[in-house]
Design brief:
Blueprint lengths: L1 H29 L4 E5 L16 E5 L5 H8 L33
Antiparallel strand pairs: 1-2
């Protein structure tokens, strides 16, 4: 019973640490990006590697700030057991396209 309780506590601690790091990523990235979109976390075959994806965000970063963006996030999860931050891209900016607002004529 104590072992199971310890496992649950370890899992809760990992979720808290992952959430804190996701907040830190947002804080660092937001100052360098023009826009941010939150996507549903990837699961199953779409999620690369073992573990659970808890955040899936896209940042629209100007080309001249890409290096700074990568530096700002590099090593952020170092020393935090069980946490991995993956930065991919660049990707096409289609994630940031929105349909035109509907006009409401009365």
């Amino acid at each position: 019973m104590q072992q199971r309780r310890a496992q649950r506590q370890t899992q809760r601690d990992a979720y808290r640490a992952a959430g804190a790091l996701a907040d830190e990523v947002r804080g660092r990235a937001t100052g360098l990006a023009r826009d941010r979109v939150t996507h549903r976390p990837q699961q199953g075959e779409l999620a690369a590697g073992a573990g659970e994806n808890i955040a899936n965000e896209a940042y629209l970063v100007p080309v001249d700030r890409l290096r700074e963006f990568h530096r700002a996030l590099a090593g952020l999860a170092d020393g935090v057991p069980g946490i991995h931050i993956e930065v991919t891209g660049p990707w096409a900016p289609y994630s940031f396209a929105t349909p035109p607002a509907e006009s409401r004529s009365a």
